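2 proteins. here.
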Amino acid sequence: MSPLTRIHNKSSVIGVVGLGYVGLPLVLAYARAGFQAIGIDIDSSKIDHLYAGRSYIKHIPSDQVAQVRSSGKLDATSDFSRVRDCDAIILCVPTPLDEHFEPDLSYVTGTLDSVVLHLRAGQILSLESTTYPGTTEEEVVTRVEAAGFKVGQNIFVVYSPEREDPGNPRFTATNIPKVVGGHTPACLAAGEALYGAAFDQIVPVSSTQVAEMTKLVENIYRSVNIGLVNELKIAADKMGIDIWEVIRAASTKPFGFTPFYPGPGLGGHCIPIDPFYLTWKAREFGVHTRFIELAGEINRSMPEYVVRRTMEALNSRGKAVKGSCILLLGLAYKANVDDMRESPTFELMDRFQALGASVQFHDPHVPVVGPTREHMNWAGKTSLEWTSENLSAQDCIVIATHHSAFKLDELAANADLIIDTRNAMSGMKIKPGQVVKA
């Protein structure tokens, strides 16, 4: 039976390697679509959670996991030999930057080396990790063919970029259009069948390179526009203009304007990282991507701007940062999720602590700081309890992430000084000079 026939009659076994913010909703989607799904991850705690029918990601309810576990459609393992049981294998592993802002493909290549050992003829292998154009051809196809397979004939290689937006109630894993590129026409047909079985809309493109570039362009578009509005925020502040009011007014134009909003810096695994994958690859072709690099510089400088505004605000009250009690509201990089990857709040905490402040954080979605690549010094620190006493005890409270769980009326009633990086206090009843936008 051909791979496409097995997908169409839902007798295929779908394997997802890497069960994080992308992989977990994906493996659940295939299980709900009626496929036997196998999740593979080296983190045994994730496997234990799934076996117990529990979610380990805040915005994915445990009842979704429990439901597919009880149906018998979901299995989970740390054993890569289970790859042989799969008709399709989808790789969802991290692609960070190294200390020189160059691509770190070690998770991709390491995973591929483990997967290739167990490949068999007739399988579909798809990479979803965000990366530079050419990665699928250079890293995936090369390894698969070195193992003795002929891509497009007895194995099918696909690239389909993940487009997850954690915590977005409108868009879930399967109703976001799925871009798919194949190494050959036969590979593309296999990819369309694979993703068409679980996703509402498929967007086929002519090559894996086009698919890889598509994801980078999406995130570069956001990075550059956020960098622009962050720079405009600083200019507007110097002129005594509220940039949030400006954006609100500009948004009334029914064409030619898309609102982007400033903040304390960029977070998440995509926007702060992905643009530099193209910057790095473009150098190979003698291209200097000035817009991308400038936007990156501006966005990375925003924590410094917030710290400076905080220092000025404290100074106006006769206080120094050194010795002050500063509370950061929101450790997650975006509202209403528990994802703290690349969160600018870490940078703010580092900077305030280096200046001698006593630093705490409060985040209802992150009760304790877990392990991170760059901020291990904060691992194990717990979220400060939200009480009137704790709020009033702070010399300054910085709103870094605007979670809907924050009781802003209580914050206004108890905080002496609020540094608002998200325009969260707009419309709240506040005392004169209590809120400083940054």
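next one coming up
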Amino acid sequence: MVIPYKAIDWKNEKLVLLDQTLLPVQEAYNTYDTVLPLIDAIQRLVVRGAPALGVTGAYGVVIAMDQALREHWSSAQLEKAIDDIRDARPTAVNLAWAVEKIRTRISEGRDAVLAIAHQFAEEDRQSSTGMGNIGADWLINALGKKPLTLLTHCNTGSLATTGTGTALGVIREMHTRGLVKEVYADESRPLLQGARLTAWELMKSGIPHRIQPDGAAAMAIMTGRIDAALIGADRIAHNGDSANKIGSLGVALACHEAGIPFLVVAPESSVDRTISSGKDIHIEIRGDEELTFFKGIQVAPIGTKTFNPAFDVTPAKYISAVITELKAYEIGKGETL
């Protein structure tokens, strides 16, 4: 499937990012050649999604090296800038993984590091294709070769990767095979990645869909409207516990109760085998303003306290399988990663 837009690109020695904070109203691209604006873009979710953050981090090291040369930074200043890129969003393992992997190659020179960043982007594109095929095959084996109604949470498509996507990549592959009846996309509060981004991608791909409030997901599942749910992951522990956009756990619990598949789709780079379980995953807590204001408009009393975790962790026991570009890990049958 040809994707008519790119979340991430490298042009004229600069990083180009599709500004996802403006979608679906405006399709605008920003360029970056210095570190601080790039970190701001990562933190404001101009670019988001674990695989996309990994590729962005790799290119970010190149940007830091270029800026260091222009501004005559010391080696300590360069290392600090790279650390700041790595730590811009703590839950998504891909960002730190890519930055740490590529920084070990700095001694080979800037052009070598850029070539590795390009390689990361290409590997991510290929990974999307692998996940799409493996996930589609899994669904057909589990549910039969028939059109399915699928539910997804947050955004896991080309906006979150450099390819067709993780969970949305599976949905796209199912659609290519003529096996998607309809997609229910959770709106994904409070930043509405599902309503703003996933619906935009589904519409551009011609896939039948509807959006629903996050609070309607359990009802849709429990009343038999949904055949399977697919989500992405920002970090997966060795035992299969998976961190994803807040609200994913509620979807998993409803699927478990209804007895339908709940799939986590993510690249191998999202698997953190250094941690044994989800208890070791650091959850990013975001600011009050995301809940008390919307697009600059006050929607809650000033001074109201909030609980605004960006992610939750779904225990492995509620996950049917974890789909990567290498295989389907049968977590529901006790397999670990």
